[in-house]
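Researcher: First entry.
Model:
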Amino acid sequence: MPLPTSGKTPWPPIQFAEPFADMDVWRAWYGGDTAHLAQVYGGPGSYAANPRAREFFDLNKPSQYRGGIVGGLARMFWGEPVTPGQPQAKLHVPIAADVAELSANLLWTDIPTVTVDSDSTTDAGLAKSTTEQIKRYLDDRGHATMREGTEQASALSGVYVRVVWDVSLRPRPWWDILGPDAVIPEWKWGILAAATVWRQLDSPTGGSEVWRLLERHEPGSIEYGLYKGDADVLGMSMALADHPETEGLAGRVNDKGMVDTQVDRLLVAYLPNIRPNRGWGHIPEAVPFGRSDFAGIEPLLGALDEAWTSWMRDLRLGKARIMLPQSMLETDGPGTGGMFDLDREVFVQLNMLDDGSGAAALAMNQFAIRVDEHERTCNALRKQILSSAGYSAQSFGDEGTVAATATEVVARKEESLTTRGTKILYQRPALLDLVTATMMVDVVHCRAKGVDPAAELTATWPQAVQPDPEAVGRTLSFLETAGAISTYMKVKTLRPEWDEEEVLKEVARIRDDKQVANPIPAGDPFNTGGGQDPQNDPAADGGDGALEDAGDGQEPGDQADDNQGQAKAA
């Protein structure tokens, strides 16, 4: 499908009005801008106030207007108008941003391991060089990009990641994060089949018209289009040379405004936060979208802001105020007003009768500050927000910094770790598609060598909670005492992130150290280790010597039989 033709095409498309408006609400909570929050909850930023969206979703009915979406927005804390004559004193607690940051830290604090599936290739050398190149994609820059994208996905329901390249800047392709409302997707069976990336440009004439650049991605090609319209309409199609920001593209596209990527794969991947989306099931084009961590808890976020604002209001109203009679004021003459010196220590009592009202005495007024009530309310709302978002309070440090074992930490963070595991299910396929497309671009446009783009990949995320080294050491010691574990398995257990080659090298080093520390006694022709029966050699039972004996092609049991035969012959 080509780009839209000139005309009165609504933009963004009407079917995405509701999802994009919800994303704008979540962006307001994520950004913490109080003016933006006030806008989306009753201002022109709400899709319920958009005339085109109201017509599409039939929101012009009076019943829906008074008691439905618009009425609900007006009842939100941030949708309430400011009382005339009162200052804007609403406060915002940035817990939404904390939730998004926690989600990104749980998933991308450490880099996942992406390797070539051993079953997909028979060339071990090519598989190794391909894996090494993938590590370069996930360098500090790539790692940071994916972490940033995951944080935005947590807040906005998902993000798009685009593969870009420019050999004059970097020798390898890299990734670019796109907001979920900056792309118009097309799905086939829930899989992204095409994507139109768009952005608004500044008017070259400074007028009120709106210029937009559309970039349509399909497998094998990218099509560009420049349009001039207004805030709601795409408008007329213009030549790329008509705008200073796009005139450089005019010499790179063909007569159809397209660029051949020479890669038979879509160079844009969708990274969902978590699925399914519970609010957009009635919109077919939005069903494949992810779900924001803020979805459904916006009223709780507003209630927390309201409780915090009330707490600060109590502090403001609770300031001590001194009330004094007018007779205690000093004046410099008629028309100059009065003043009172708070540091003055001696006052002359007026010669007047006391009417019993205490009007001639100083008085102080100070309201109670309901600290405990507000604190319990804020803590309860905070815990409910975290639980509804899928995270444990321990993940935010609510249990303090008392030392705990790895088992105790896992138990306390069980809800957060469950959410992390669920999100990895959606992150892994998107990451593998993205890496595969990057390898294809690297080979075609960056002339990468030793890279197999057709190889199937696997991705493994590190453990979120590392085991306690002391507990692991005790476990390995018990197994060694029982003779139930080999040196190979001990190293593998202690270093699960190592590959096979690294483990075998460490086993060999351990065995060499043991031989240096415990050399074989002289005069031991049968290599019994100083009187030890070869039949009881730990190597025969798969102990520490098993790998060394197996290294020369001879089974440990065969070695023991040879020793016995030599003894009998002697």
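Researcher: Second entry.
Model:
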Amino acid sequence: MEAGLSRIGQRLKKPKVIIFLLIFFALGLLFWFCLPNPLFRSPTSYVIDDANGQLLGASIATDGQWRFPPTAEVPDKFAKCIIAFEDKRFMHHPGFDVLAIGRAIKQNLRSKKVESGGSTITMQVIRMATKDKRTFWNKAKELFMAARLECRCKKSQILSLYASNAPFGSNVVGLDAACWRYYGRNPDKLSWGEMAAMAVLPNSPSLVNPGKNRNILLRKRNELLDKLVQQGIIDATTASLAKLEPVPDKPLPLPQLAPHLLERFKTDSQREDYGDTRIKTSIRAGLQRQVNQILERHHQTLKANDINNIAAVVLDVETGETLAYAGNISHPEDSTMQSDVDVVNAPRSPGSTLKPLLYAAAMHEGLILPNSLLPDIPTQILSFHPKNFDLVYDGAVPASQALARSLNVPAVRLLQQYKTDRFCDLLHKVGITTLTKPADHYGLSLILGGGENTLWELSGAYADMARVLNHYNKYNGKYDPTDYHNPVYSAVSGSKPDLQKSGLLDAASIYYTLQAMEEVMRPGEEMLWGQFTSTQRIAWKTGTSFGFRDGWAIGITPKYVVGVWVGNTDGEGRPGLTGINTAAPALFEIFRLLPVTREWFDMPMGEMVKIKVCKQSGYRAGEYCDDTDEEYVPKSGLNAPVCPYHQVVHLSTDGKWQVTGNCVPPNQIVNKSWFVLPPSMEYYYRAKSYAYHVLPPFRRDCLQGERGNPMEIIYPKEGAKIYVPLEADGSRGRVVFNAAHRQNGIKIFWHLDDDYVGETKDFHQLALNPPPGKHILTLVDGDGNTAHVGFEVLAK
């Protein structure tokens, strides 16, 4: 034994043996590392599929080729066809076929030219990867690398590499792209005749040139079908029928059902470095096609008013998945339409669409109850002078009606109470990322569209509210913080929630918000929709930006959220471009595509408490509220203010006068509870509500100072800054000052900086022309009551 080992050691010391071992080791290393990783580095097309794998759209690769990303699965028909046509011993050889190579050499020697290369499918994969010319040396290299590829990959993987990278004529590479370009279908939807045509194309990809080589392609395909019959893969009848099918002609255009989503995926993929350029989205192709048709139909009507663009999204509430994504109409042939702009993801002024979030937040904080009266009077806060869309004031309006009617003044005053910085913080937490400046930059105009939002994020925020409400009862009165997230356009997998006892917005506040939004009158239905049991219950909100530049409509059901935007991408405003007129009709037409149900959100009773509420004011009932209801309100409503408008008044026995103990004996005073609004609110409110009773005036011989001032200046407010524009003739215009008084028929005497400027009776308005600078307006009524306010007139 020792002698044998000694002889081996002596032989290894010989130079020739050492050289042989080194060469063998080098060849081993070369064999092991001869393949690049990855094997193919060619750029691929960006491709988006719907939730069922249906192609939605694709873009050409950067090298000008239609080359879809590789797929792991190769259709069984193609595998059988390509093996029968190219490499019948593919499943058994080690990457090269000795018999095929010998046959090729014999044929080439006989014809004195290269007629056959004897390449296997594995060798063809190597040639496609290296792109080497056909020479004897390169053929030997292909054989060597093919053997290594067989060691690295399974046969199915090699077939996948071939199917993904084979040329199929023109600028089409790969089976997936070829099937869509030539037949307009997925590979697994092709017949035997169609797949046989696909199998013969990589051998001679020029056969699909329009009008050329049609007979050659037909002959090759039919010969392959005959081979399949001979090998028992298909029967003769199947082959005969397959031969009757036409062969592919010139390439077909690829589907473009969601071109804006395709561009968004392309941008996101490059920014986030997804790696794969193909994605299976959550889009439903059928719904996407119908939404596109609806938008196109509305576009044809809207463009008569030079309104060129419209966009929509449909979201699944439970997951936040996007079921339809129409970023704009699609008219690439007309550059004036700017239809390439994806408005779903473009920041635009949202108009009034943030009001539901403020309404829910105010209830969550206990600032209001669902129907608390909010002031709706002319309002000026420094230089900001918000107005309602119809330029009319109600004096006081229930919060739910203020939201349903989208009144601007109550919303601005509510935001002033809630604070803009807190509201901005809330918006950031519900997924709004477009408000990048400090809260002071937006100010109170934020609630009227003073910032910018996207249809994507706003629709997502509405879906958040619905999701929280759905989950509250499902999770036994607890909250999942991850319910607040932006929409997604690919399928998401559920995870176990980390539940908490409290949420960003409580479920009861959200419930009453959606209740108010459901009461909005639908376009063309005149409030009759609720009488039809087949009509879907929808909470919805519209928005119109300043200058009629953007029209919005977003609707919510327990299962879906639909968002629609209408306008011009260049920001041009148009008369009549309002959310209710332009976006809402498309919104309800899209909802009719979705499964109709009368189901509604369950009341979150765990977040509610029953309390006495004043019928007239909507606040918590106070000791002087004599007409109350017991209502369920959010638990935070226990901290809401007590009714500030009911008070005890002292009347004469005939009820015509207010009196005091200074002028009437106590036994002749009638004490009565009375609903009393401040003079400015009362001035507008009593014109709308015939049930409102104005307080009787004080009897002349009675003091009234203890009852407060019966007079109030409506405009301007303290500290207001006013700019008076010039008239057409260049002269300075006038400012109309406005006041309210409880007592009818009384005179008010007006003074500007202690100078008497006029008097009014009943209708207390006066037009003045104060010069630039600071001023004091003083009012005195016939009973000696005074009111004054300081303001400033700006020079420019």
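Model: Note on the second entry: Confidence is low (pLDDT under 50) at residues 526-534.
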